[in-house]
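stage 2 :: seqdesign
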């Protein structure tokens, strides 16, 4: 009985943490936009809400340009340890992006002895991060958080135009269902994050922030070095699903300041 109680308590605690993590994402897409020059555009995010000041004043903001001259190879980072599992998920149209959110524990990653549980993933078109000034067709973010809700880690994948992405292809019917329906949710059934392959052990690592308000800093960023492929139709599907002013939902590049960019290259 004691074992069952502990197991149930841990499960409830984890789900509560996941709920808290999800609530940190801005739900009202009308509060901000990606349109440069607009009153609620990226250059003004830090002025819109008192809780968003980091968007304008922070020194650890994301995204950034991953410049070779700023990259240091660090073999001590080690391989990215992922332990995912399939579980129930929903597809949601947030107006400014399309999001896949797991309703139950979908596993975790381990970074510096911390376990970060997978909460959700979403897409940006075009990519937010660049490599030596090159911007890509799309970027996918897998957002993770520690059970206490205090630490966030994001794995980013960059895509160029080419063959369709198999994982996105599986989700296409659900994305179509919520297209142009802000705040609409659609059950995606059991979704297996293990189908998202790294494709390479090499990755970039730096400290940054969320790329949407409130632009929370202290986020551990991991950008997989291998560039994946996505079809033009798949990118257009994501663009068509969201609000018109979010078709290009990539935040402008932020100043690196004195931050280090590490790379695991083994």
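stage 2 :: out
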């Amino acid at each position: 009985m004691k074992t069952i109680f502990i197991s149930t308590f841990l499960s409830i605690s984890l789900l509560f943490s996941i709920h808290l993590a999800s609530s940190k994402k801005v739900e009202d897409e009308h509060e901000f936009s990606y349109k440069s020059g607009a009153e609620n555009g990226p250059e003004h995010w830090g002025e819109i809400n008192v809780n968003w000041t980091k968007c304008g004043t922070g020194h650890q903001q994301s995204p950034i340009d991953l410049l070779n001259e700023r990259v240091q190879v660090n073999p001590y980072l080690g391989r990215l340890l992922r332990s995912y599992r399939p579980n129930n998920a929903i597809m949601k149209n947030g107006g400014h992006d399309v999001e896949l959110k797991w309703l139950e524990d979908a596993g975790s990653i381990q970074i510096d002895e911390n376990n970060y549980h997978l909460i959700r993933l979403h897409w940006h078109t075009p990519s937010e991060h660049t490599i030596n000034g090159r911007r890509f067709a799309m970027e996918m973010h897998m957002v993770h958080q520690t059970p206490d809700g205090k630490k966030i880690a994001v794995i980013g994948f960059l895509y160029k135009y080419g063959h369709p992405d198999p994982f996105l292809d599986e989700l296409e019917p659900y994305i179509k269902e919520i297209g142009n329906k802000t705040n609409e949710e659609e059950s995606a059934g059991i979704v297996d994050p293990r189908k998202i392959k790294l494709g390479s052990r090499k990755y970039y690592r730096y400290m940054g922030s969320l790329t949407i308000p409130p632009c929370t800093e202290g986020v551990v960023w991991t950008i997989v070095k291998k560039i994946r492929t996505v079809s033009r139709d798949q990118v257009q599907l994501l663009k068509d699903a969201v609000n018109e002013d979010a078709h290009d939902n990539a935040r402008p590049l932020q100043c690196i300041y004195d931050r280090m960019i590490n790379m695991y290259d083994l």
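stage 3 :: structure notes
- The two ends are 46 Å apart (CA to CA).
- The longest strand covers residues 114-124.
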